[in-house]
TrEMBL record, chain A:
<protein>
    <recommendedName>
        <fullName>DUF2877 domain-containing protein</fullName>
    </recommendedName>
</protein>
<dbReference type="Pfam" id="PF11392">
    <property type="entry name" value="AllH"/>
</dbReference>
<dbReference type="InterPro" id="IPR021530">
    <property type="entry name" value="AllH-like"/>
</dbReference>
From TrEMBL, chain B:
<feature type="compositionally biased region" description="Polar residues">
    <location>
        <begin position="498"/>
        <end position="519"/>
    </location>
</feature>
<dbReference type="GO" id="GO:0004775">
    <property type="term" value="F:succinate-CoA ligase (ADP-forming) activity"/>
</dbReference>
<dbReference type="Pfam" id="PF06545">
    <property type="entry name" value="AllG"/>
</dbReference>
<dbReference type="GO" id="GO:0004776">
    <property type="term" value="F:succinate-CoA ligase (GDP-forming) activity"/>
</dbReference>
<dbReference type="GO" id="GO:0005829">
    <property type="term" value="C:cytosol"/>
</dbReference>
<feature type="region of interest" description="Disordered">
    <location>
        <begin position="495"/>
        <end position="546"/>
    </location>
</feature>
<dbReference type="InterPro" id="IPR005811">
    <property type="entry name" value="SUCC_ACL_C"/>
</dbReference>
<dbReference type="InterPro" id="IPR009499">
    <property type="entry name" value="AllG-like"/>
</dbReference>
<dbReference type="GO" id="GO:0006099">
    <property type="term" value="P:tricarboxylic acid cycle"/>
</dbReference>
Length: 309, 1013
């Protein structure tokens, strides 16, 4: 996130005036049962969104964690309620010091450690089994019917190294789908995370670099929601929610026939949003699937999917 | 076709919400298309393809609502449906945030860990109980910060071994300081991130080292406490080694500083070898007569890591070294290690220092009273000074009084002040006032009193560091961040008065940082005495068992993952963690019941967890099929004069009224005597024998009396092959099981023997096996809990049996009477549910080491339980009188103590444990619906698992709490909840009410005694 510093943890405090900082106006953009979104228009980056997460919320890597945040606090918030973000000017880069609404004041007290996908040791015992990857893929229910084929197309393009194809396939995913984190973005996150996971391989490392380089040319905020844009940036760096990190890591530990463990992985990712967990894994599996499997093309590819049919 | 486009900026909904809105709008009559989504480029493109004119100004953060409809009215309706749907979503969200459906708080560490996914447990309960909570945490997969003191060495070693074997660590006991994954635990300072890790067997020593590293700009990666005894021979550095392995595997750590009071040389040597094997550099900051001061150790570590050694900050220093010669050095400390260091340094110049924690044979004092002339250092944090009051870092009052009074006698006053999490929130003001008072007293006596303060803290600590310094300087103090420098400064005021009296064996090495091993900072390694040589052998043997592996560990991600903490004990720690925005759940704690050592022993049993898991699995897997009905004489092998009763074994003399009535009635029913009086006489003199139903794989409700000619349900577990039996239910009112025994009762029994039994036996034979486990699941789904509500199972049984029953070759009047009898008795299926539960528990029996309860039964006099790990042994206590609702004019004085084998239902997780599934039962047994739901939720705190098939709809189909764990009962003091009918106290009265009852705790404390042997 270019403007708001992510991965902070905050405590609730009474509002205290402090003249040595800069305060910008913001508003409550959305409420969900375990947290809320704060948005701020920040020239020249456009709208920036800051998830404020209660103890039971998904640990979005770009969010502020507030363990004390309760249902009672959230119950007093309303969408579009004015808010302010106070920035510390002490350091070279401004960082969020406080987030305030009419009845809530979150004071940043430390930096937390989001989950991060780490590269797999190629010399270690863990491998991604073709059968396991395939059996998971068969059971995924992505938010868009052609998400897998769009993801495969991008992976194929990355393998070919043809920049125009990569750009075309990235654009076919960016912002694709309804909701605040479109399915295409989630799949793109999954691809970026899985490339990082397999980046000890020379070819995957090259593909990771290519994807990172091509994504760096895109102004995400112009193509997708601010929330999704921030999560994409985090994914390129390897950051994601713990459930996805566990899934990508655990799949490499699974052998054929370990149905209970496989069910466990699926059950955990199914709790992420409505489709997001499946969308993320759809993207990741496009990378983790052995090369010869990438010829799969959805019969629905190219058809119109205007809504949640 | 009319269309509408609504673009709403800055609204965020997830795809589920948008799907809900979309579905609702589409369902509106006349609406043709409804496209609702965020205005991303692709979505806008798709909407345009669908014929909507989306303006270019639509942005990805806009919510676009595009609707087309057959006419304007339908369009208006569609738009109204959009608003309605969004309003409903908002209301739903608000409701879900409300207080309804609140969970019961976790009552055990295990429960809290499971609910929160924590990775660390902070234990601060009294030392006698600390082992119990620590082992619970370790067995739940969490490392532990063990703040408690007074934990014996054997327990410490056992806990640390268990932790190492599980790839975890126990930081403690008596560990007050740690910084893990950026979280300060206990008394910890806000230290900037760096690449030096600290392993600390000394709390305030660790704070001194870490704050100096912060001041030098190096910072730290992690600070892992080990407890003060860890580097002793007895403990063998178990936690220090584990910490070293963890830091070797920590991506953020390049170098390790080990901080300790004097350590065992052999242990130190082992750690040296381990560090070399792990390939990680180690510096030592180990205080002792021949070791460096902590500041010198930090300087050596900084040098090793390539950092410049700074000039340590001081404030308010006058530069004078004037010899005041007006009195002794008086050091009044909060930190024990600070006091030790001050004494070690001061003793080099001033000779032995009198103290409450003297070093090197110096004089010992016991309280805060200062000797008039001797150089004195007092540690106000020592155990002897904190009895009945908090540590001086939290409650400084006693030390402040001593400081103020010291002005009358001290020549120079040396103090420490420790800032950071957990410490007093604003300590400067009180300390400055005390310093001013002391100096004022000295001034009035015509003396100048130098006051030197070593300030252990950082600019980022919660207390205002700069303001603290300013306040102390204003009060006239000189402030140092190095305790060693502060001490030397204090000594410099007095030094000329005293010639150096240093130990002849300690040369200048202490100052230079070199010891007789020649290793920088490494503590001395004396040649081993014979005792020490043996000790080293022991330590080596200890290490070889599980602890000296030189592979790095991740401590299950403790150092890299975001901290999530469970705290049991002092709220102080939880508060300090909350102030750092760290998720923390507090477990309410109370001393467990039963013998504490025995409880720890049972929990330490390496078989226990696996045994409980095995017992639980068997209990949940067991099936139950009704395969037939046979007379007890035949299927149980009862002799003509043999009678079974409910509950644990019982002599007739101790039998309660209803039990006597039922037994005597059964004797008459069998035709063995003509009168009840003769029957009672025969039961008393042994002509008629008695045994518990459970001894014959049978169960019986209330008095549970089974006589040879009574028909029994015969159930088989197709999974484990066990069999269980139960008599036929007589209905309500005056019945034998409640102790009634008049002609009406006996006539009914004869009808059951002659008609009901044979009819049901033939009907079941014709039908084939009936799955009664399925009945239980259906009951829970239908509002029955299986003990006092059995309507669903009764009707299911009747439904299953009816076609075969009506086809039997019996008089139609008899068949009609059988159907009428079953249909009129909602309790009939209780006698099917009970043996079903008995089969579940039979599968869980006889697993050595298991602490799960497999039987709960009452005979009207005693309540008895059996445990999976203790065979057929009964553990009993006095049966209680239920509290509940009474029939007619009956009251508590009419009720007999608890009676019956029907508590087998609760043992198997239904009945009272599953009250949430049957809220209507409160109309029978008392309480309200909230009580029913809360009761079930509370039962999860004392059970080992949840049933995968028997589920409770109102709890989102959570499985019933299954596998009552004696250990959890004793630790939470929560007893299993039982619903029960109440029998009249006097024989022959019958039922007087129904209510709620618990087992006596004696059953569980007695069970613990046996299990622990």
């Amino acid at each position: 996130m270019p403007f708001l510093d992510p991965n902070s943890a905050a405590v609730l405090r009474p509002n205290l005036p402090n003249a040595s900082v800069v305060t910008v106006n913001a508003k409550v953009l959305g409420l969900f049962p375990t947290g809320f979104y704060i948005g701020v228009d920040a020239y020249p980056w456009g709208q920036q969104i800051l998830p404020v997460l209660g103890p039971d919320a998904l640990q979005l890597p770009t969010g502020i964690q507030v363990p004390q945040l309760t249902a009672a606090h959230l119950g007093e918030l309303r969408t579009e309620m004015p808010a302010t973000i106070t920035l510390s000017t002490a350091a070279a880069h401004p960082s969020v010091e406080r987030v305030e609404t009419a009845n809530l004041c979150c004071v940043i007290v430390r930096t937390w450690r989001p989950s991060r996908v780490e590269p797999l040791d190629l010399l270690g015992p863990q491998r991604y089994s073709r059968d396991v990857v395939e059996s998971i893929r068969e059971r995924l229910i992505p938010g868009r019917n052609d998400l897998a084929s769009r993801s495969f197309n991008l992976v194929r393009a990355l393998e070919s190294g043809i920049v125009q194809d990569v750009d075309s396939c990235v654009h076919a995913l960016l912002g694709y789908g309804p909701g605040s984190t479109p399915s295409g973005d989630d799949a793109l996150c999954g691809i970026a995370l899985a490339l990082r996971r397999t980046s000890q391989s020379v070819s995957r490392s090259r593909q990771q670099s290519l994807l990172t380089q091509r994504l760096s040319n895109i102004a995400f905020e112009a193509r997708t929601t601010a929330l999704s844009a921030s999560l994409l940036r985090a994914a390129v760096e390897g950051y994601c929610i713990p459930e996805i990190e566990h899934a990508i890591t655990d799949i490499a530990c699974l052998g054929d026939g370990e149905d209970d463990s496989l069910n466990w992985v699926l059950a955990n990712i199914s709790r992420i949003g409505h489709h997001s967990g499946h969308d993320l894994l759809t993207g990741a599996l496009a990378v983790l699937t052995p090369t010869e499997e990438l010829t799969l093309v959805s019969p629905l590819e190219g058809t119109t999917h205007a809504d949640d049919s | 076709m009319p269309t509408t486009l609504d673009i709403r900026s800055g609204l965020y909904y997830d795809s589920v919400a948008l799907m809900q809105v979309s579905a609702q709008v589409k369902a509106t009559e006349g609406v043709d298309t409804a496209l609702i989504g965020m205005g991303t480029e692709l979505n806008v493109g798709l909407m345009r393809e669908a014929g909507f004119d989306i303006p270019d100004s639509a942005a990805p953060n806009d919510l676009i609502i595009a609707i087309s409809a057959s006419d304007d009215a339908a369009l208006t309706s569609g738009l109204a449906a959009v608003d309605e749907a969004f309003t409903r979503i908002a209301e739903t969200a608000t409701r879900s945030l409300g207080a309804t459906g609140a969970e019961q708080p976790p009552l055990t560490v295990e429960s809290a860990v499971e609910r929160t996914g924590s990775n660390l447990v902070v234990v601060s309960v009294p030392g006698d109980y600390a082992g119990i909570e620590t082992i619970a945490a370790l067995d739940s997969g969490n490392s532990v910060l063990l703040f408690s003191d007074n934990v014996d060495v054997d327990t410490e070693v056992a806990l640390k071994r268990r932790a190492t074997e599980a790839d975890l660590i126990v930081m403690g006991p008596d560990c007050g300081t740690a910084i893990v994954a950026g979280a300060g635990l206990g008394f910890a300072n806000e230290i900037k991130p760096g690449r030096i890790g600290i392993v600390a067997a000394s709390g305030t020593g660790a704070q001194q080292v870490s704050t100096l590293l912060d001041a030098a700009g190096a910072g730290i990666s992690q600070l892992i406490g080990t407890g003060g005894r860890d580097l002793t021979h007895d403990v063998g550095g178990l936690s220090a080694k584990q910490a070293l392995r963890a830091l070797a595997g920590d991506e953020d750590t390049d170098h390790v500083v080990v901080v300790s009071k004097p350590a065992d040389a052999a242990v130190v040597a082992e750690i040296e070898v381990l560090a070399a094997d792990l390939g990680i550099g180690v510096s030592w900051a180990v205080l002792g007569p021949d070791s460096t001061d902590l500041t010198a150790s930090v300087e050596a570590a900084l040098d090793s890591c390539g950092f410049d050694v700074p000039t340590w900050p001081t404030w308010g220093t006058t530069g004078t070294t004037e010899d005041l010669k007006q009195g002794p050095l008086v050091g009044l400390f909060c930190g024990g290690t600070m006091a030790d260091e001050a004494m070690l340094i001061a003793a080099e110049t001033l000779g032995p220092i009198t103290s409450n924690i003297p070093i090197g044979g110096a004089d010992k004092i016991s309280g805060p009273e200062l000797p008039m002339s001797a150089h004195t250092v007092i540690d106000f944090g020592d155990d002897g000074m904190t009895q009945g009051r908090a540590h001086p870092m939290i409650d400084p009052s006693l030390r402040l009084e001593a400081i103020a009074e010291a002005g009358g006698s001290a020549g120079v006053l040396l103090l420490d002040l420790v800032l950071g999490h957990g410490a007093h929130a604003a300590p400067a003001e009180g300390l400055a006032e005390a310093i001013s008072a002391a100096r004022s007293t000295a001034t009035q006596a015509g003396r100048e009193l130098p006051v030197i303060v070593s300030l252990i803290g950082t600019q980022a600590d919660p207390q205002d560091f700069s303001a603290t310094v300013a306040s102390l300087v204003e009060a006239g103090a000189e402030v140092y961040v190095s305790n060693a420098q502060a001490t030397r400064r204090a000594v410099s005021f007095i030094a000329p008065l005293n010639q150096p009296q240093r130990d002849s064996t300690s040369g200048d090495d202490a100052q230079s940082g070199l010891n007789n091993s020649g290793t920088e900072g490494l503590p001395a390694r004396p040649g081993p005495s014979s005792h020490e040589a043996a000790a080293q052998t022991d330590v080596a043997a200890n290490s070889a068992s599980a602890t000296n592996s030189a592979s790095a560990t991740k401590l299950r991600g403790l150092l890299s993952a975001e901290p999530k903490v469970v705290s049991v004990g002092l709220s102080l720690f939880a508060d300090a963690l909350r102030a750092q925005a760290i998720p923390v759940v507090e477990v309410p704690w109370q001393p467990p019941l039963g013998d504490t050592n025995r409880l720890f022993s049972v929990m330490s049993d390496p078989r226990r967890l696996a045994a409980n898991a095995q017992a639980l699995e068997a209990m949940l897997n067991a099936g139950a099929q009704l395969v037939g009905l046979r007379p007890a004489r035949e299927c149980l092998g009862l002799a003509d004069n043999e009678f079974l009763h409910s509950g644990p074994p019982l002599e007739f003399e101790r039998a309660s009224g209803p039990m006597r009535g039922a037994l005597a009635g059964a004797v008459v029913f069998e035709g063995l005597t003509d009168t009840l009086e003769d029957a009672e006489a025969g039961l008393a003199d042994g002509r008629f024998r008695m045994a518990p139903c459970h001894s014959k794989d049978a169960v019986g409700p209330m008095a549970g009396v089974i006589s040879p000619s009574m028909w029994m349900f015969e159930l088989v577990d197709p999974v484990y092959g066990n069999r269980a039996y139960c008599s036929l239910n007589e209905g309500l009112g005056k019945v034998l099981r409640y102790g009634a025994n008049n002609d009406e009762v006996l006539d009914r029994l004869r009808w059951m023997r002659d008609i009901l039994g044979p009819v049901l036996a033939q009907a079941v034979a014709a039908h084939g096996p009936i799955d009664t486990k399925y009945y239980v699941s259906q009951m829970l789904a239908s509002g029955d809990e299986g003990h006092n509500r059995n309507r669903t199972a009764t009707l299911l049984f009747l439904r299953d049996l009816m076609p075969d029953l009506l086809a039997l070759d019996f008089a139609s009047a008899d068949l009609a009477e059988v159907c009428r009898f079953l249909g009129a008795n909602d309790y009939f299926a209780l006698n099917l549910v009970m043996p079903t539960c008995k089969l579940a528990m039979a599968a869980a029996k006889g697993i050595p080491g298991s602490s799960l309860v497999v039987t709960m039964a009452r005979n009207g006099t005693d309540f008895g339980i059996q445990l999976s790990g203790t065979g057929d042994e009964w553990f009993t206590g006095p049966a209680q009188v239920a509290e509940g609702l009474y029939l007619g004019d009956y009251g508590p004085e009419d009720a007999n103590p608890d009676i019956g084998d029907s508590a087998i239902t609760e043992t198997a997780g239904i009945g009272g444990l599953a009250m949430a599934a049957a809220p209507a039962v409160v109309r029978l047994v008392g309480g309200d619906v909230a009580f029913a739901v809360e009761t079930t939720r509370r039962m999860y705190e004392i059970t080992a698992g949840e049933h995968p098939i028997h589920q409770i709809p109102i709890l989102e189909f959570r499985g019933v709490p299954s596998g009552i764990d004696l250990v959890k009962v004793l630790r939470t003091t929560v007893l299993p909840q039982i619903n029960t009918g109440m029998a009249g106290r006097i024989a022959g009265v019958g039922q007087v009410g129904a209510g709620l009852v618990n087992p006596p705790m004696d059953c569980f404390t007695n069970g613990l005694e046996s299990l622990g042997q």
